[in-house]
Amino acid sequence: MALAEHLKGFPDLPPIWLLGAVAASWLLGRGPGPSAGPVGEWVGGAAVVLGLGLILWAAIWFRRKRTPIMPHHDPDALIVEGPYRLSRNPIYLAMVVIAAGVALRQDSLLALLPVPALWWVLDRRFAAVEEARLQARFGAAAEPYLAQTRRWL
């Protein structure tokens, strides 16, 4: 049976992918490997707090604009304010920062290995698709925003 058939009905949501990356980082952090030391613990903790704050800030704008925050839904508004001035996908950026923070808090730098994989999944499965939806929904109004604001940073 193909992997796609096994995953049918599995909730394809960014927080699920984040949890998978965090779990993989935790498992990799249990094994031997070069340590990030106490600096990794502090930097990792700060990254997790920063990421959570960025998610909250972005979510506030979804609420203000009364548009769905869930992926795979058509947007009702083009958000270009708040964190969306800095990144077209601040919530996904925050998830990668959180994953990196959790990984740095492990006692092995090998725990960082899932972070690029999470970035790739969020970029391909969600960010690119959602940006195409923005362009389809808002047409010419979305073009300057997409041209001027970077996808990640």
What is the fold's blueprint, element by element?
Layout: H1 3-7, H2 14-29, H3 37-65, H4 90-104, H5 114-138, H6 143-148
Written overview of the protein:
With 153 residues, the protein is mainly α. It has one domain (35-148). It is 63% helix and 0% strand. The protein contains six helices and no strands. It has helices spanning 3-7, 14-29, 37-65, 90-104, 114-138, 143-148. Helix 2 runs parallel beside helix 4, helix 3 (37-65) runs antiparallel to helix 4 (90-104) and helix 4 packs antiparallel against helix 5 (114-138). The model has no long low-confidence stretch (mean pLDDT 93).
**What class do helices, strands and sheet pairing give?**
mainly alpha
State the distance separating the first and last CA atoms.
Answer: 39 Å
Compute the number of helices: 6
Reading the helices and strands in chain order gives: HHHHHH
Mean pLDDT: 93
* Oligomer status: single chain
Radius of gyration: 17 Å
Biggest β-sheet description: none
